[in-house]
Amino acid sequence: MLQFIGTKNYKNLSLLPPVELNNLNIFIGSNGSGKSNYISCLKFLRDCLTTIPDESRGVTSFEDAVSKLGADRILDNSVKSPARVNFEYCFSQNLSPGEPCDDKFSTMLTLTLFVDRKKNKVIISREFLFGGQNLNEMDPGPSPFYYYKFHDIEIGKGAASVFDNPRQNSIIHLKPLDNIPTNSLGLTTLPKLLEYSKYSPESTPAYKRRRDLVDFISQWQFYNANNMDLNQIRTSEPKIGGSDIYLSTSGDNLALVLENLIQQDIDFEDSINQAMKSILPKTRRIRPIRSGRLSLTVEWYFEDIKEPFYLSDMSDGTVRMLCWATILHSPVLPSLLVIDEPELGLHVSWMRILAEWIKQASRKTQIIVTTHSPDLLDHFTDCLENVYCFYSEDQTHFTMKTLSKEMLSPSLEEGWELGDLYRVGDPNVGGWPW
After folding, report:
1. What is the dihedral sign for C-alpha 69, 73, 75, 76?
2. Residue 186 contacts by C-beta under 8 Å, 6 or more apart in sequence?
3. What is the share, in percent, of the chain residues with pLDDT greater than 70?
4. pLDDT per position as a tens digit, 200-239
5. Which range has the worst mean pLDDT, 61-70, 135-144, 311-320, 406-415?
6. How many whole angstroms separate alpha carbon 158 and alpha carbon 179?
7. At 63, is the pLDDT very low, low, confident or very high (cuts 50, 70, 90)?
8. Predicted confidence band of residue 133 (pLDDT cuts 50, 70, 90)
9. What are the pLDDT digits (tens) for 259-276?
């Protein structure tokens, strides 16, 4: 599980000390309060590890990812260039959803970028991967175990922990590595660095830990309701045979994802049909079918109506709910699911249903949801400890805080719900621009 992220000198977001996440995380805050910047930090890390380098232009996956993040504009405007931007990513190795992270072994990736606006330059100036307990505390106790330290004393040089005898996990020493690039993340270059060294992967603890982290981060999926293209979803007829199990950001592969998940899990078709019955009770069956010889489309059957409806016949909100149901009821949920403003275009009566889908999915994986909807927030009143407010004390730099029942108990006892308090700008909840 992603335990927390921390930032320093990154745009308007100040996350030191960082705030720990849960399996379910609901982000609220005014426009421009840092929610999107937080999510961009996560996309940046995933893109560094998953983007295919453009060798024809000589662009690495890191360079492509930092360009998407904002290039030299990632530096806080109040900080004079050149300067350093710091990121911390902490991962709990507690694998059971719902269990607390306290005193569990965690792994931390710390990344420092050197940013020079005059030269339009962004390079990696330091990267550490280490593990230990209570890494979010000021005094973590015993010294952490370092998998590697790159660019620590000198740019381009570093060291990795190596076993004297890997079969017995004997004494570990930090051994030097050279020619470490400053335009690629160490998590991606480590295998090649070891290939050209005298250290075998079996003797290097970082090798397996790096593989586990890359596998975990590569699964992260990001959705924004504003990016869902309803016209493409309605008209696209994806080709049979694709292996898609996650909905694309636009949603255009919906029919193919439904087809693959139904083939993969015998209970998924019933699950998706029950989900749609909760919003349209007369729904009888939804199914992907062949459209021509090599394509797929979606049929929607209702009680007492023989002929099927198609997505082109359904309202915008109904199509959106089918997309959220496909994402949240999937039997193969990603390791982290991030959803921006899922309430867009939905009827208020469906907010309770959507909130319940989100809660159910968070029992199986980690979820981050951003929202501006009081109607959706009403249905998270029972889990205030999972709601995070982005706020600013100086109207320039933003951080985040968690809500609690104790903080809001007088209002809750009077019958107020979380959305009510958000709607009227209760200062204990926050999330307003003033």
Report:
1. negative
2. 124, 127, 129, 148, 150, 158, 180, 193
3. 93
4. 888 899 999 999 999 999 999 999 999 999 999 999 999 9
5. 135-144
6. 9
7. very high
8. confident
9. 999 999 999 999 999 999
Give the Cα-Cα-Cα angle 344, 280, 27 (nearest 5 degrees).
30
CA distances from 307 to 141, 209, 254 (A): 67, 54, 21
- pLDDT at residue 135, as a whole number: 75
Residue type, 219: Q
Query: Is omega for the bond preceding 374 within 30 degrees of 0, making it cis?
Result: no
How far CA 263 is from CA of 242, 256, 298, 366, in Å, comes to 13, 11, 15, 25
Q: Which of 331, 344, 364 is nearest to 354 (CA)?
A: 344
**Residue 429 to residue 434: CA distance in whole angstroms:** 12
Nearest by Cα to 87 from 13, 168, 198: 13
Q: Terminus-to-terminus CA distance in the chain, angstroms?
A: 34
Task: Say how far apart CA 217 and CA 2 lie, in whole Å.
Answer: 9
How many whole angstroms from its chain centre is CA 90?
13
Own/partner pairs for 276-282, CB < 8 Å, 24+ apart? 276/300, 276/321, 276/322, 276/325, 278/353, 279/318, 279/321, 279/350, 279/353, 280/318
Q: Is the pLDDT of residue 306 over 60?
A: yes
- Per DSSP bridges, beta strands 24-28 and 366-370 are parallel
DSSP state of 49: H
The token pair at 145 is 């175990």
Whether the Cβ atoms of residue 97 and residue 365 lie closer than 8 Å to each other = yes
Q: pLDDT tens, 346-405?
A: 999 999 999 999 999 999 999 999 999 999 999 999 999 999 999 987 878 999 999 999
Q: Say whether pTM exceeds 0.85.
A: yes
Q: What is the DSSP string of 22-40?
A: -SEEEEE--TTSSHHHHHH
Q: Which residue has the higher pLDDT, 350 or 51?
A: 350
Sheet holding 83-92: strands in order across?
2-8, 83-92, 105-116, 121-133, 145-150, 158-163, 172-177
What are the chain's domains? Answer: 1-220+334-434 (3.40.50), 226-333 (no CATH)
Residues in Cβ contact with 181 at an 8 Å cutoff, skipping those fewer than 6 apart: 60, 156, 189
pLDDT of residue 67: 96
